[in-house]
Amino acid sequence: MARAKIPRKSTNIDMTAMCDVAFLLLSFFILATKQKPPEAVAVTAPSSVSSKAAPEKSILITLTAEGKVFLMLGEDTKKAAIISDLNTTRGLGLSPAELNKLTKMTVIGLPFNMMKGVLNMNEEVPASKLPGIPTVDSTNNELVDWMRSITNAYKGESQKELEEKILIKGDNMAKYPTFKSIKYAFKKNDILKFRIVTNSESVPAGSDLDIKNRSEGK
Question: Which residues pair with 47 in a beta bridge?
Fold first, then answer.
């Protein structure tokens, strides 16, 4: 007996709802995604063959070719706690409004005796006009106090995780004595490990690392 044939009908799918959802998701990601801000302090970092990405939740210390030192506390760090601790331990006497303004600064590059005056200015001083954090010698190294407040804010948490957050980005023309003063500030606060930010470059052909990578099939 012949099988009964079922008449074929065209299938129409209304994609209007799906398109609406797709555009809503696209709009959400465009508005919610944080774009990487331009560097407030531009330096030309040395190159290396390392390809490990720097963590987003970082505490970045920048060293310029002129020897100026700047501190950048990422949004996901304990920035408010660090600044509050510094205000207390150093007796800076900053008001809540001044503390709030300092917390909102992208780049910190001021000696303590200039903070109140700069924070009370009507216009924000660009990073290029800031004198930097004093790190001249062991008797006037204010980065020691900043690092002390950082360790105080992260007290009780993993020392290893804190050290992984700390990055140094120095200009290729920066002098070693200033870099040494940064290491001194770390050592005074028992921070014995840190990472250096460099520009990535390819592994030189014929080098030991190149030979090792080829032997491992990389």
Answer: 199
CA distance 141 to 73: 19
Beta bridge partners of 108: 71
Closest CA to 166 of 142, 188, 145, 183: 183
Burial of 63 (0-12, 13-18, 19+ CB in 10 A): buried
Mean pLDDT calculated for residue range 147-156: 94
Residue length of the chain: 218
In the structure encoding, which two tokens stand for residue 88, read together? 């207390």
- How many angstroms separate the CA atoms of 55 and 48, rounded? 17
Q: What number of other Cβ atoms are within 10 A of residue 84's Cβ?
A: 19
pLDDT band at 17 (very low <50, low <70, confident <90, very high): confident
pTM for this model (two decimals)? 0.73
Yes or no: say if 140 and 187 are a contact pair by the CB < 8 Å rule: no
